[in-house]
Every structure is written in structure tokens, then in C-alpha cells.
Amino acid sequence: MIWGAFSTLFIGLCHYIVPRLCGVRLAGAMWSRALLLIWNANLLLAVVLMALGWNRGWEAGELPLVNVLVLFLVLIAFTAQCLVTIGRRREAPLYVSLWYLIAALVWTDANLVLLILGPDHVPGINNAAWHGLFLHYVVGLWITPAGYVLIYYFLPASLRNPIYSHKLSLIGFWSLAFFYPFVGLHHYLYSPIADWAETIAIVSSMMLIVPVWTVLQNFFGTMVGRWHEVGPNLPAKFLITGAILYLVGCTQGSLEALRSLQEPTHFTDFVIAHSHITVFGTFILWALAGALYVWPRVSGAPLWSFRLGNWGFWLVTLGIASMSLVLAAQGLQQGFMLMAGVAWIDSINAMRPYWWLRTLTGLAMDVGVSLLVLTMVKGR
Question: What is this structure's pTM?
Fold first, then answer.
């Protein structure tokens, strides 16, 4: 979802956003097609290699080293394209989407160095700490600012309404930059990592309420006087639904960083519920919204069927919301079973009915996305 679905859509949509915000053509645009082919071929190879057992063992960093190196080089090239384009822009002020774009690309280029070195070159408990940094740099310093790039551009554009507050944009940006780098160790509470480092991660996790609620106030404020337009407006519908799920997922994420709440949820599917409702329920939905907005303007043809797209919206939204509820419920049950001294294998067997429900919700999401792809492709 992070590298294949979200990142691919994000890079493609940036080819639409950046020239329009800068007033100039994308620098090195002649190289974009080659980078696209390399990016997708590399992801396909990564899937094959992981199926054959090439796995570096890090959550969100499973890709074999050769694939990580290719990702790194492509993102370096894309970063250069965007930064040169921004440097040549016609308007001196930077719109908020460009702030987040610069930050996301520079932070992630640096973070991929952690991934290149981490799994094989950092021993012992320090490897877990290093992984905690990398994992939340991917979530907080890549897909989060990249997602903000999309919604800050496409929500006002789809509603034809200016963003609610420039000041809130500033608070959201700098609080994200200040608090998110320190939260990664909350994945390793009750571990041999120093308690003071874990406590810093917990406090930083709670402080993430500041950037999350700030940007959400900006998005919901932008909707004032425009709520009646959401129904027939597919991009806006995806964007605002993703924002609502973002509020739920991030509130859950901050709270589960507390030691008392993490005790029954540590290493259970409750944590996976949080990951899914944010990564897919928010950022994939925002990326799909951008695709639905851009596609008719690029192809020169309207979406084939609003009704089909609307079915896709409901299947995707209800699928990911139901999956997250199922995962949260089974995670809590497993956690309390383990706290009660139940054998681990018995706790896993108790999860089987939930996993069947999870499979059905995942199928709903698959069908929903397929309907969205169909209504775009058929409209050409």
C-alpha cells in the first residue's frame, strides 16, 4: 500500500499539481516516462523476490536491498525534478502543498538511507530502535506530508473554495515536523529500549494531536458552505471521508501509545487496525480522490459512470471501516486472552472467524477500487 499504491499515485499526481502551482513545466519531464517504467518494474520485481523469500524483516521495510536502492535512486531523481521546478516558479509565495512536497521528498530521501543500512548493519536492540525511527518516518514524514499535498490541493480545487486558514497551515506543518520524528519507539514499549526514550515517544505521540486536529480543522473549515456539494462530487466525497477516518485513526494511534492502553494491544491486530484505517482509509482514499479529479482533465473525457464510481466509493469506504473495526475487536480479544495466560496458539485459533470477516471486507475494497478504475478507463 505504501510504495505500490499510495506512492505511485502520489508521484503521478505531482506531475499534475507541481506545474500548476509553479506556473512552469516540470523540470526534466522527458525523463518521467523512463522513471515510471523503472519504478513499476522495480515494484513488480520486489513482489516476486519477496514471494521467493527475499525479505529484510522490517515492517514497511521488507523490500530486498536491490529494490530499496532503485526506489532511492528514482525518488532522488524525482526530488530533483520537483525542486528545480519549484526554483523556477513564477509566483514567489509557496502554497502549502509545495511546503509539504519539499519536506516529504527531502525527509524520505534521508529516511531511505536508514532503510539501506538498518536491517543488516545495526545489531541488537539498537536495530529495533532504528526500525522504530524508520517506520514512523515512512508514515509521518512520507505518506502524511505527501497526503497533505494532495488534500490541500484537491479539496479547494474540487469545491472551488479557498483553504480555510493559512495560519492553521503553518501550525500544522511545523508541529508535524517537530513532533513526528520522535514517535517511532512507541512500537517497542515494554522492550529493553531505555524507558526515557520510550517516554519521549509516548509524549510525542500524544502531541501529534496538534498537527492532526489543526489540519483537520482546515479541511472541515474549507467545507463550510459547501457540504451540500459532497454528494455528487466524487473527489470531495473521498477527500472528506478520508479526513474523517484520519481523525479516528490518529486519535486511536495517539491513545494506543500510552503504556496502560498498549498493554492489552501490544503486537496484536488492534495495531494493524490503526495502520489500515490511516494508510488505506485516509491516504489511499485521498490519492484516489486526486486520480478521479485529474483523470477527466488529462484524458479529455468525463468519468464513464458516476453511479459506478459511487458504488466504488461505498464499497471501499465501508470495506476499510469494517476491516478496521474487525481488526480492533479481534486485537483486543487476543490481547486480553494473552494477559489472562491463554496459550499463544489458542489465541491465534480464536482469531479465525475474525480473519474470515477481514477477508470479506478486503474483497469489498478490491471490488470498489476495480469499479473506480473501470469508470476511469471506460470514460476515455
Answer: 0.94
How far apart, in whole angstroms, are the C-alpha atoms of residue 337 and residue 341? 7
Helix 234-255 to helix 144-159 angle, to the nearest 10 degrees?
Answer: 150
pLDDT tens digit sequence for 319-368: 999 999 999 999 999 999 999 999 999 999 999 999 999 999 999 999 99
Are the CB atoms for 334 and 350 separated by under 8 Å? yes
DSSP-assigned letter for residue 95: P
Does 232 share its domain with 329? no
Nearest to residue 41, comparing CAs of 6, 10, 4?
4
What's the rounded Cα separation, in Å, for the pair 361 and 358?
5
3-state secondary structure 217-254: HHHHHHCCCCHHHCCCCHHHHHHHHHHHHHHHHHHHHH
**Per-residue buried b or exposed e for 277-303, using 16+ beta carbons within 10 Å of the residue's own CB:** bbbbbbbbbbbbbbbbbbbeeeeeeeb
Query: 3-class SS at 365?
Result: helix
Q: Which three cell numbers stand for residue 6?
A: 499510495
**150: closest CA among 91, 95, 106, 205?**
95
Nearest to 147 by CA among 338, 45, 17: 17
Q: Is residue 168 located within the same domain as residue 78?
A: yes
Same-domain status, 247 and 361? no
Tens of pLDDT, residue by residue over 167-184, are 899 999 999 999 888 888
Q: Which residues contact 174 (CB under 8 A, 6 or more apart)?
A: none
Grid cell, residue 376, equals 476511469
Among residues 68, 103, 267, 296, the alpha carbon closest in space to that of 181 is found at 103
Instruction: Give the C-alpha distances (Å, rounded to integers) separating 232 from 65, 159, 243, 309, 311.
Output: 45, 11, 18, 10, 12
Structure confidence at residue 266 (pLDDT): 85
Per-position DSSP letters for 309-351, written without gaps between them:
HHHHHHHHHHHHHHHHHHHHHHHHHHHHHHHTT--HHHHHHTT
Residue 366: domain span: 301-380
CATH code of 104's domain: 1.20.210.10
**Cα(222)–Cα(154) distance, rounded to whole angstroms?**
11
Average confidence (pLDDT) over 3-9: 94
> Is residue 27 within 8 Å of residue 84, measured between CB atoms?
yes
Would you say 245 and 285 are in contact if contact means Cβ atoms under 8 Å apart? yes
